Amino acid sequence: MNSESAPSSEAKEMTFAEKQAERMKRLRSLHSARNEARTHNHQEVVAEEARNKLPANYEAKKRQAEWLLEDQNKREEATKQGKDYDRVKLLNISAVEAERLERKKKKKNPDQGFSTYEQATVRQYNRLVKNMPTMDTEQYDKQKQKYGDAFYGGPNVIIHGMHEDRKEAIDKMVNDIEGQIAKRAKYSRRRTHNDDADIDYINERNAKFNKKLERFYGEHTAEIKQNLERGTAI
């Protein structure tokens, strides 16, 4: 009787030990999952904080830079193969899309004469951007690797002192500024004063403004001016 009860007691003890081992295994697994989740949450918090410090248009600027880089690589590849990249690109889009791009290209920077100083500044900016040289992809990649996250800039990134301008870029900027000064000098020279002309201004700046008004709106206001001079205006 005693010999039969011993194996039964030993089997119960082994079952209890196995259950205890299984519980410890599950507990370690839960601890590991909790630590992994805590690490993942911390990484997400750090990443979100970094995203909040970036400019509002960071993603758009990044996508645009990547698209320009990809487009430039495709253009260089087509040039090596002796193909016209613009023609190859048009072959892969529909006629409707091609027509829309052509209309957009014509309306990109139309010369509508002087309207406001703001529009004149916009045209100046677009002209300068258009005259910029083709992007050096090799130099672009080197700078991207060198500056890391500071490459695209941000509200808390100090870029001053990190970038060293090339001599070629400085010379190009100097030549462009000198060209602007020379061009501006042609239009800002002092005109000879005509004593017989009507005085309808209070200073030289006002005289220039009145000439601009006359140039653009004179034909529409000629009758009104004549009526005012005759005293027959209503």
Structure description:
The chain has 234 residues and is mainly alpha-helical. It has eight helices and no strands. It is elongated, with a radius of gyration of 37 Å. The mean pLDDT is 79.
* Beta fraction: under 5%
Question: What is the approximate shape?
Answer: elongated
Task: Sketch the major β-sheet.
Answer: none
* Count of discrete alpha- or pi-helical segments spanning 4 or more residues: 8
Termini gap: 134 Å
Q: Which parts are unreliable, with pLDDT below 50 for 5 consecutive residues or more?
A: none
Q: What oligomeric state do these chains adopt?
A: single chain
Please tally the β strands and state the result.
0
Give the ordered list of helices and strands: HHHHHHHH
Instruction: Determine Rg (CA atoms, Å).
Output: 37 Å
Average pLDDT metric: 79
What structural class do the secondary elements suggest?
mainly alpha
What is the helix fraction of residues, given as a range?
Answer: over 70%
Quick gist of this model?
This protein has 234 residues and is mostly helical.
